[in-house]
Write a structure and sequence with these properties.
Blueprint lengths: L8 E11 L2 E11 L2 E5 L9 E7 L7 E12 L2 E8 L2 H18 L17
Antiparallel strand pairs: 1-2, 1-4, 2-3, 3-6, 4-5, 5-6
Length: 121
């Protein structure tokens, strides 16, 4: 297992992803300071770069992430790392994660396991 940068908190909200001449909707399933887990039926690939607009609950305006990278894909679930965002949006995200952690009194650490495919001999 790989230790993550920080805790992930469950948070469901709409997200708009924009890539190479395409725009599509998805749903955020959880969020952390460096990224989020998105469910999206559009085909994304590891290494793709996208722009995100996250519509967090109870917030007047969406969080803009002008540059994010797809780090892993498992079916319709996509792990995305935030690469570039404004200082204001970084503060908003940190506050949101902090508030969610304290409102539930615990954190669920997201864990990732890997299966290495065997090659035919």
């Amino acid at each position: 297992m790989i230790k993550r940068y920080g805790p992930r908190v469950e948070l469901t909200c709409k997200v708009i992803l924009a890539g190479d001449q395409s725009r599509y909707e998805g749903r955020v399933l959880d969020v952390s300071l460096p990224g989020c887990l998105i469910e999206c039926v559009h085909s994304l690939h590891v290494g793709d770069y996208v722009q995100l607009r996250l519509f967090f609950p109870d917030q007047a305006r969406p969080m803009n992430v002008p540059l994010a990278a797809v780090r892993w894909v498992d079916g319709t679930k996509v792990g995305v790392e935030f690469i570039r965002s404004s200082k204001d949006d970084q503060v908003r995200l940190a506050s949101l994660v902090h508030d969610q952690i304290h409102s539930i009194g615990r954190t669920d650490q997201w864990r990732e396991s890997f299966t290495i495919p065997r090659t035919a001999n």
